[in-house]
Amino acid sequence: MYLLDYTYWKTADTLLRSGYEFIPSSDYSDEIWLEAPGKSPYDMVRLHRKNVDFHQEIVRDANMQAERIEQVRISLNKRSIKVLNLLFSAEAPVDDWEEAIGEPYKKGKASVESALIHTAELDQGIQRIEASLQTDLAALRHLREDDISYDDVQGVKESFISLLKKKEERRKKEAAFFQNGKPFFTYIFIALQLIMFFLLEINGGSTNTETLVAFGAKENSLIAAGEWWRLVTPIVLHIGLAHLAFNTFALWSIGTAVEKIYGSGRFLLIYLLAGVTGSIASFVFSPYPSAGASGAIFGCLGALLYLAVSNRKLFLKTIGTNIIVIIIINLGFGFAVSNIDNSGHIGGLIGGFLAAGALGLPNTSARAKRIVSAVLLVALGGGFLYYGVHSPAHQQTALVQQAGRLYQDGQYEEVSELLSGEAQQEGASADLLRILAVSDMQIGEYDKAAALLERAIDKEPEDDTSYYNLAFLYAEKNEWAKAETAIKTAVKLKPNEQSYKELQEQIERKE
């Protein structure tokens, strides 16, 4: 009398505890819809408690559900939906009904496969469910009517309802987790990016290095000279339309999620701190001017990774491992393609992770984690910044960049005065020696320039421009044999350079 009802509720309860999710409906006393987990061969499972007298009832029900699911599929824009339709009937239909459950019923790209569970062959029905759903219903095997009472039915029904309420409470908490703020600052930064791009374009172009530096791009020598604000301003500057479009889309898609999770105040700090740590990393590891929100955006990814560490279950359920794949793809792309400042990306990623840890997730304590994260953030950021300012190699790079600007302005004697002392050091770079040499050439210091170029070639034997300039100097000094050797090497290294060939012809005629 109660066995079938018990089986109905116990099956629903077991599936719910196995990872199936309840799909709300008006009344689940005789119809329960469940969304299947990824491992299931079906997308949805329907449990329907209805006594079936004739096979035509099975056919009508299956067709009706197929039409219903096809409408759902279209509204959800799903490629296909496969449903297992479990009918719980006290008795089997009085006519031939087996053919009614043989093949799935289809409507469009919706498929409904029916199975009948009735009291006379209950064990076979349980086995059919286990095989179809690849699940274990051992508690229902070999049960008899005498084994089940009304209280048993009520007990398993209440268990199912209680579990539903717990899942609903958990769902509400998870939904609230993404309602800690509205994406206010995300849109502010997007607007700033667009405004600054417009200003760059009307003042020389967003791909013009001088314009970028004038508007606040990261430039190592200027940062070393005390322009610390350049650690922040690159966040809203972009180099070219493609750079702007990619980062604006990334900020819109990732930043909005982070701001909803952490709240607007925390998001602002995470974004700025990640941008600064990205700029510091670029300052330390990249000698070239740079700009862009990439470091700050990678900081948003770092904040999501902190969520994964703090609440792994929620992370996997709501965001998932896709974010890790995005990080790996972007870093891999940065290493594979030239002119991408991956040091800024990695610095921003670490900075965002530590900033999120220092600020903490909303409505959580974790004081020890916050303190450790804050200490690490300050120590790493401050340590790398100190190293960047005081490292001999970085000081030399800053001098070279400063000298480059002086050279472009025609201040050759100032270049010579700035670099002569550093050039005497054994560790002077080839870049420093080259720019000092060409400056000395401009002011007539040919012997000094030749010596500098010879040292630059010792450091970088494949440097064709140094051979060319050296050939020119030897020619000016009438040292034709040396000039010919130098220009031949330059042509060999870069055979298609017309200016090299012209100088070679002049030298050969003089000989």
UniProtKB/TrEMBL annotation:
Annotated membrane topology: Multi-pass membrane protein
Primary location class: membrane
Boundaries of every Peptidase S54 rhomboid domain copy: 226-357
Keyword Transmembrane: yes
Each TPR repeat, start to end: 430-463, 464-497
Annotated TM spans: 184-202, 235-255, 267-285, 291-309, 321-340, 346-364, 371-389
Pfam families in alphabetical order: Rhomboid, TPR_19
Subcellular localization, as worded in the UniProt entry: Membrane
Alphabetical list of PANTHER family matching this protein: PRESENILIN-ASSOCIATED RHOMBOID-LIKE PROTEIN, MITOCHONDRIAL, RHOMBOID PROTEASE
Name used for this protein in its record: Membrane endopeptidase
